[in-house]
Amino acid sequence: MNAFFLSAIYTEAHASSDAGSIRLGAIDMLTAITYLIGIVAIGLFAAWRHKKKQGAAEEYFLAGKSLGWLSIGLALFATNISTLHLVSFAQNGFDTGLLNGNFEWMAGFTLILLGLFFAPFYIRSSIATLPDFLERRYNRICRDVLALISIVSAIVIHIAFALLTGGIILEELLGVSMMLSIVVLCVLTGVYTIVGGLLAVVVTECIQTVVLLAGAALITGLAYYQLGGTADSPGGWDGWSNLTSLLGREDEMQKLSMLRPHGDPDNMPWYAILLGYPVLGIWYWCADQTIVQRVLGAKDELNARQGPIFAGVLKILPVFLFVLPGLLAYALHLDGRLDLSLITVDGKVKSKGIYASMITELLPIGLRGVLVAALMAALMSTVSGALNSISTLVSYDLIKRFRPTVDDTSLVRFGRISATVALIFAVALVPALNMFESIFNGMATIISHIAPPISAVLVMGVFWRGSSSRAAATTLIAGSLLGVAVFTNNTLRPDSELNHLPGGFMMMAFNLFVICCILQVGLSLLWPDRPRISSDASPGAEPRSGRQLMGADLAWETPLAALKIPAPTRLGDPRILSLGLVVVMVGLYWVFR
């Protein structure tokens, strides 16, 4: 794409923009509709190709355990990234700079934990759900508690928040009501997800990841190019120098920093990220069924370990593709090159609408439809992944408990019904979630009160064989009630001291995590478990059959024992791949410190 072509793009974009409204042209609508029809058709085609096996529960819920590392990595990324990220990260980039990019880069370290330390146990125990793993490690109570939390969090966090942000931006771009656009997308997504199961979800997610990244790269590149040159003659590849110059002029160079000092006005200092994010990340990436189900569908242990590491590599991109565009928009606004009058009220920019404004201001007719397709790709991939995990949780953790002899055909039917019901509930929740000023921070705040007890119980269970069942159940229940109580207090009492802790919700998550860990350790020493040795494994020996691993067998002998697992080749060794990813991430943090 040469300079002449880019200059033509901007000329057409500004010439065709409607000063009174944000709307798409006929070409854009055609592009978006074509994408919708195509992705639904592909999902249904994937389901049709495997229709002879659709009665088998493992085929429907876990794709017949046939997924390779590439599919797992792409699916993990696509399920995680939603319209919430595109819209809210652009908003955060406009308001606070690159700061919220920490949620993406820190995810790489957590994905390494998933690939190296957690995935081997998940695969060897042949589980279908994460609550199933907790029952084998601890007891049935832990399974029930995690199943309930997982179902509720999937509906609220993965589906409802994604629908909210998707509805906001589609209402601005298409001129139709938010709820109508949400309902249409839900119906289309539900069709191939409920019919096709995990295989249809993963196939469409792989495609939607490519579309999503291409669309995000397009708007980032065009915003960067637009920032180059001068206000009178925009366009050029010196956008970064202009960005730093504009930020320096406003004395806001901290917007380029990922690691902020204590007392940072955005209340997310470096220690809050270092201490708080792992608590959120371990729950989200290592214990949340919606995410981990892609790993459970791996064809073997090696692919289950490699897939998350590949996803960690992909998580480098969102800082540049989702967060940076918002910062570029801020610089363009400072320089008078981006008209934000449509989202300005009483002289203040309402940054929730920044991404929609960038689409209509920076892109010409035709290319806007590509970005709308990318937004729909992000929304549909997240919703489809969450629906499949909900159907799996309900089928395996609820239905099979009360009807253990249920056949696979009935199990799949129950799964489809539960996904439909969950989708209806999520749509009903959308208006209530619109109360948060920053949608992403609102979601993260909810997670910070949900994650601590689950992360504590999981970490203790996998890395300490002395972690006991009664202690885990008590910690899960008490920690969850404490999290709900704190969240309720902070919501109903905005002036509460808990709302003004240094480090905000990140340090809140860490503090709750420490409390849960102390409770778990203390109660484990008070109520130790009786040894439970699997029938086919002697102490210290590797079991011959993962299906019978129980209790302390599902914990590493030492915290670093997982690093002794060999790999067929050095090139594909998850340990070497993880080391390379760590080196890259440390280098990036050094550059943007």
From TrEMBL:
Give the membrane topology.
Multi-pass membrane protein
State the compartments where it is located.
Membrane
This protein's name: Sodium/glucose cotransporter
Q: Please provide one cellular component term from the Gene Ontology annotations of this protein.
A: plasma membrane
- What's the main place this protein lives? membrane
Q: Which Pfam families match?
A: SSF
Q: Which InterPro entries match?
A: Na/Glc_symporter_sf, Na/solute_symporter
Please name the Gene3D superfamilies in this protein's record.
Sodium/glucose cotransporter
Membrane-crossing segments per the record = 25-48, 69-90, 105-124, 145-170, 176-203, 210-227, 268-287, 308-332, 370-396, 417-436, 442-464, 471-488, 508-527, 576-592
Record bears the keyword DNA repair:
no
| Species lineage | Bacteria, Pseudomonadati, Planctomycetota, Planctomycetia, Pirellulales
Q: State the CDD domains in the record.
A: SLC5sbd_SGLT1-like
Which keywords fit this entry according to its UniProt record?
Answer: Membrane, Transmembrane, Transmembrane helix
Tell me which family the UniProt entry assigns to this protein: Belongs to the sodium:solute symporter (SSF) (TC 2.A.21) family.
